[in-house]
Amino acid sequence: MAATVLKHLVADVVAGTVSPCEVVVRDGRIASVVPSAGPVDPGVLVPGFIDAHVHVESSMLPPWEFARVAMRHGTVASVSDPHEIANVLGEAGIRFMLGDAEGSPFTCWFGCPSCVPATAYETAGATLDAAACERLLDDPRIGYLSEMMNWPGAIAGDPQVLAKIAAAKARGKRVDGHAPGLRGEQARAYFGRGIETDHECFGLEEAREKAALGVRVLIREGSAARNFDALWPLLAEHPALCMFCTDDAHPDDLLVGHVDRLVARAVGKGIDPMAALRAATLNPVRHYGLPCGLLQPGDRADMVLVEDLRSVRPLRTWIAGRVVAEAGRTLVAPRASATPNAFRAATLAAYDFLVHVPSDASGAGEVTVHAIVAEDGQLVTKRADVRARAVDGVVDPDPSSDLLQVAVVNRYSPAPPACAFIRGFGLKRGAIASSVAHDCHNVVAVGATREDLAAAVNAVFAARGGLAVAEGGVAESLALPIAGLMSDRPAEEVGAAYAKLSARAKSLGSPLRAPFMTAGFMALLVIPALKLSDRGLFDGLAFRFTPAVTR
Q: 221 near 246, Cβ under 8 Å?
């Protein structure tokens, strides 16, 4: 096979230098990198970027299509936790993800989900116990144990938790963490179990404390959780411990940019470009043992030509010496995906969403509503205890004071909706609903009226999964036929449909940047303070159910 010779500035993330070089690529690998004897062409060659923690399912695209989009932005690999589809379809879902990615030049480094279901306080479609994790970890395509969200179990020494960690360690595989807000003795006990990373830091002091324990801190900037602005100084303080991740990136965001944007933002903050590049390349490659190259002789030729080290704008992406993306478009053809799913049939009415006061007494009276408070760009929520009026023993949503109703409906088996109240969504009318509802992916809905709540939820059930916006009892939706999480349509089509629904939600009054993504995390019990599962309102600090309404 003929050699390819490239002459550019080369960022050597191992040596920490940027210099004009001649790079020879032969048979998909770097044959040599030597100083250039003459002038070089414009642009800087850097190693391919890595997303160090992502749930591919949150892009609403299956792995093959996700990879096609990510490669446009210079990403050559993702450390991918198939936790979402595992909660719906179990081991079969994980094997779907492995199969869908098969043959792609992109490296989807899949993990074994450690917490399916994430807690015992919600209904999932499957369970992965320690024996199932051992089977999965025996598969050479499974590279690590995914985020250990059961931090109380890890600290307490739960036998199942410890068995899963031990299974990964016995096979020489990494163990990812998930410890939002965990500090002090609790953090020391948690990470003392052999857990090595955390992507849930939402404050700099928390991140510093974890870095001091040797924890690798993933600086996250996704579609809902946006922690970059809080955490970027850690790149200067602990550069060897930092990596970049998106965690959950919706399709409209993914179409615009990926890890390339985080590198550019870090450089824009004054971070040494080499430290920013290492967080996107060297650090994840070495920590996870990824098969990706680092522009060293003998490495697989995974590299990106960027315009410069300020804009970090990708011009061309190679994987194993093959040009896979150029000038903002992918050169890898699309491919059809299967559509495995698990969704019961259901039709609900407005009366199914009534919130009764906790007594047999009827008539009017004041009650206390324990409301979730959602914050834009955060997975954590707050709690507001609000005095509200009950009429005939029922508490209604009050859009005028941003007291909306939130509901979670079991998608797997018949059960009444769990209902509570929420602030921060700002809807003045209508409702939104989604089957992308972390972690068990039941149907979550937020609405100004019960009638529109029912209409939005029914649209999701009719589509066997997806997103919906309802107003005046009329709904429009985006179907997600792959496990109720992903579309089988091209990325541009999915991104446009998602952007249209998001705009509709905002037209109903929501000030949130990503209303659907934020709604999806209102069922994520492992992140405090208040969340809602299909079984009821959950206090994530006390780790127990709590009433939605009290006298």
A: yes
pTM of this structure: 0.93
Spell out a b/e string for 243-274, using b for 16 or more CB atoms within 10 Å of the CB, else e: bbbbbbbbbbbbbebbbbbbbbbbbeeebebb
| pLDDT at residue 338, rounded to an integer | 97
Structure tokens at 68: 């096609």
SS3 label, residue 480: coil
What number of other Cβ atoms are within 10 A of residue 182's Cβ?
Answer: 23
Alpha-carbon distances, residue 281 vs 33, 170, 242, 294, 324 (angstroms): 18, 26, 11, 7, 18
**CA 178 to centroid of chain Cα atoms:** 12
**CA 126, 130, 133 angle in degrees (round to 5)?**
75
> Token pair for residue 87?
């909660």
Q: Which of 482, 477, 483, 448 is nearest to 460 (CA)?
A: 477
| Tens digit of each residue's pLDDT (9 = 90 or more) over 311-363 | 999 999 999 999 999 999 999 999 999 999 999 999 999 999 999 998 754 55
For the sheet with 216-220, list strands across it: 197-198, 216-220, 242-245
At 438-489, the pLDDT tens digits run 889 999 999 999 999 999 999 999 999 999 999 999 999 999 999 999 999 9
Distance in angstroms (rounded) separating the CA atoms of residues 352 and 354 = 6
Distance separating alpha carbons of residues 240 and 27, to the nearest angstrom: 31
Residue (of 376, 273, 389) closest to 9 by Cα position: 273
Closest CA to 515 of 458, 432, 405: 432
Handedness of CA 469, 474, 480, 485 (dihedral sign): positive
- Residues with Cβ within 8 Å of 488's Cβ and at least 6 positions away in sequence, in order, are 62, 336, 337, 339, 481, 482
Amino acid at 181: G
Residue pLDDT, tens place only, 349-401: 999 999 999 875 455 688 999 999 999 878 889 999 999 999 999 999 999 99
Q: What is the rounded distance in angstroms from the CA atom of residue 210 to the CA atom of residue 191? A: 9
Contacts (Cβ under 8 Å, ≥6 apart) of 142: 94, 110, 111, 112, 136, 173
Rounded CA-CA distance 537/374 in Å is: 14
For 200-242, what is the HEC assignment? CCCCHHHHHHHHHCCCEEEEEECCCCECHHHHCCHHHHCHHHE
Phi then psi for 38, rounded to 5 degrees?
-140, -165
Superfamily of domain 48-291: Metal-dependent hydrolases (3.20.20.140)
The residues spanned by each domain of the chain are: 48-291, 350-550
**What are the pLDDT digits (tens) for 261-273?**
999 999 999 999 9
